[in-house]
Amino acid sequence: MSNISKLTLRSNVLSVARARTRVVLVKNDMVNVLQEAPVKDTPYIINSLKYGRPSFRLKRRGGYGFPESDAFWFTKDDTSGKVKLNCIVEVFRAEADVQPMMIKNTSLILEYNSGAEKVVKTLKITQSPSVNQTNILQDIYAELDINDKELKQLTEALTDPGKAPVLKIKSELWWKKPESTVPQKDSEAAVKPASSASRDRLKMVSRAAAARSKSAVSRAAAARSRSVASLVTEAAVVPADDKPQKLDLEHLIVLHYGKDDSAVFGDITEQYEVLDFKWKHESIIKDEMYTIYYRPTARPDTFYFLPQVFRIKVNEYSGEPKISIAMIPGENPELIEQFRIIISIQIVPYYNPKAKKDLFRTLNNISGGKIKYCNLSLGGYNSASFSLKPEYSGENVVFRGKISEKIQSIDPVNGFTLSVDCTLESFDFFKRELINGFIIGDIIFDLIEETKDGENVTSSPPIPVELDISKLGGIKVGMEIIDNDEEEVTFPKGVKLFNENEFPITIKGTELILLSEIGNTIYDADYDIGNSASWPLILPEKSSGSQDVLLRQSDINNISEENRYWTKLICEPHGVSLNTDSQSTIERIIDYASGDPQIWELRVGCPLFERWDDLDDSLLQPYKLLDKIEVEIKSESGKTLGIVLAKNSPFQIIQMARSISDILKTQQINSRQYQYRVRSHYILSKTDWTEWKDPDSTAANFLDVQPQLLTN
Question: In this structure, are residues 132 and 212 in contact, taking their beta carbons and an 8 Å threshold?
Fold first, then answer.
């Protein structure tokens, strides 16, 4: 299986500026206002609402047919190699209609045995966002740095049922009696909040809570084998006056995981594998039709995802297509018609931003809202093969390319090299096709499906390889968030796009997604946010301006009414292309072509000098005083050579050279482009230079010139 940690496809994620200051952790000074100590585990009914002493469990990730696991996993930093243990503990009530009471001063402690030694480690709590679901109070994010020795001990303990590591959660539940009491009905327990403010605190409702969601995340029953125990210690059952009193809560979660659980161990070892991962696909029909092809991985937050098309990679420095051309001689180097043109084209996968958004929608729908957003990787395959379209293959077609049948590795950034071998005549056809854009062939992946019976290999649908020098892969678009000036608004105003390249580009649109993310958990996503920009946009070269793309006002109004809170904006420009003339682009590529120039000889002569002794005096009379003739030859590249013809040297041989660029641009094997001009020298005077002239024939290897007559 591919290493997905190194093949993750990056999206343009913009953090909402106010998210840092507006995210609110659970307050530590909140006190539950009750008539009696909440020592019973049964719910307390207050104004027809149910409240209860909270319990604790590990949050679940994935599910609904996708890989599911506890939110308890190891990560390894690719640069430093340091390992970190991560977990998310959920504060909840088992009953769907019971709200947990408030807690504070929570701590998480990991205990496990290593030989005869008992190891005790306190985890660092990083965030504790509240959750907008009746029976869930908050999620507690915690982490622990693990050294190599501890990692070995802990992984052995977690996979050994006899060692039973324990995650101990300690917390305090503070309560006090109300300042004044009101007699309650028999149907109510003797507890009641003193005021609406107290009731709000008890319910843990906070407008600025970072994880406020429109739709609550449903929870499947925990599938891991573990036992849970709760302890309550009351410091003072009967309060003195109305001072706050404390109950110490302690909850134990016994941890045990199988060695095949790569959702837990995947980052620290390659020996763990999870089975039953199959490829799925959805055909999307919109203004353009495409297929999304995806597969779950061992990590609930990562999916393999195939590209929609392969394109020519852009040269990030020049903005030109990453294409190189070489011309090599055939069996007889003297015959230019036997020369071969070798074209190397760097090809990269292209992921349509619309397809990515449709994948997120699909996962959200089929997972019941549990997978709203995820990391995407190119992986889950053994090899990939390339095949030419029939119209571009075989011996009887104009264009013929020789390409490797198998491509063992396709890098998501650098892609692969497509090498095309064609004749000089067919290069002209290939050049025209590059300018107009065409599909040269398809990539087919040998996809790996992991099942309980072992691995199966199936073929992907053909993924087109598009060669179009105006539609390139990897063109960079810079962007930054535009903050909203209104203090109470919890979403950005829009995005500023700017060109990071040394060449102008065109952008046809952007796909936007708003996320509510705390830690590694996505609590909410909005896929329908739009913008009010006029497309397409043309951005001049680097440092020459930018373009603001503002969120659509109607969508902003809807978001404001829903009172949801957002921390990230995903912005994916699409239809990004070079804003340059395709013909000029291909000519610049040809200018860099490599290969030895074609050397040929041009005989330049003056028939008058060559036959001087044989001509009649009447014909020679006007030229009696002619001394010599100057001739200048200008080659295709603009280089000028000069020669002198006279009676004693009536002709000269000049070595001419046709560059590879000249040959490929003209596509004429025998075409020898040059210009010439003449000046005649008489004994007492000389004429002016003639205008530059084209020869009568570009196929001939000789040039005859005539002297000019003196004018009075």
Answer: yes
Residue among 501, 528, 341, 487 at smallest CA distance from 21 = 487
Contacts of 64 (CB under 8 A, 6+ apart): 220, 366, 367, 368, 370, 371
- In this prediction the pTM is 0.65
Please state whether beta strands 66-70 and 166-176 pair in parallel, antiparallel, or not at all (unpaired): unpaired
Angle subtended at Cα 608 by Cα 606 and Cα 611, rounded to the nearest 5 degrees:
110
Domain range for 627: 597-704
Say how far apart CA 517 and CA 188 lie, in whole Å. Answer: 39
Residue labelled with tokens 């599938």: 223
Phi, psi of 109 (to 5 degrees): -130, 130
List pLDDT tens digits, range 129-146: 888 889 999 999 999 999
Cα dihedral sign for 262, 263, 264, 270? positive
- When divided into structural domains, the chain yields a total of 4
Where do we find the tokens 């390409």? 403
CA dist 291 and 535 (Å) reads 25
Query: Among the listed ranges 24-28, 341-345, 374-378, which one has the minimum average pLDDT value?
Result: 24-28
User: Which residue carries 């309060």 as its tokens?
Assistant: 239
Q: Say if CB 20 and CB 518 are below 8 A apart.
A: no
Q: CA quadruple 201, 202, 207, 211: dihedral positive or negative?
A: positive
Are 160 and 283 contained in the same domain?
Answer: no
Which CATH number characterizes residue 629's domain? 2.60.40
Q: Is residue 217 within 8 Å of 521, Cβ to Cβ? A: no
458 and 487 both lie in a single domain? no
Same domain flag for 241 and 317: no
Residue 358: its pLDDT value, please? 92
Specify if 155 maps to a domain. yes
Question: How does pLDDT run across 246-289, given as a tens digit for each residue?
Answer: 999 999 999 988 877 777 887 676 544 445 688 888 777 666 67
Q: Are residue 392 and residue 498 in the same domain, yes or no?
A: no
Length of the chain: 712
- Provide the token pair at 592: 């860099």
Query: Under 8 Å CB-to-CB from 59, ≥6 apart: which residues?
Result: 70, 71, 88, 89, 90, 139, 521
- Is pLDDT above 90 for 75? no
Question: Predicted confidence band at 582 (pLDDT cuts at 50, 70, 90)?
Answer: confident
Q: How far apart are CA 5 and CA 480, in angstroms?
A: 26
The C-alpha R_g of the chain, in whole angstroms, comes to 38
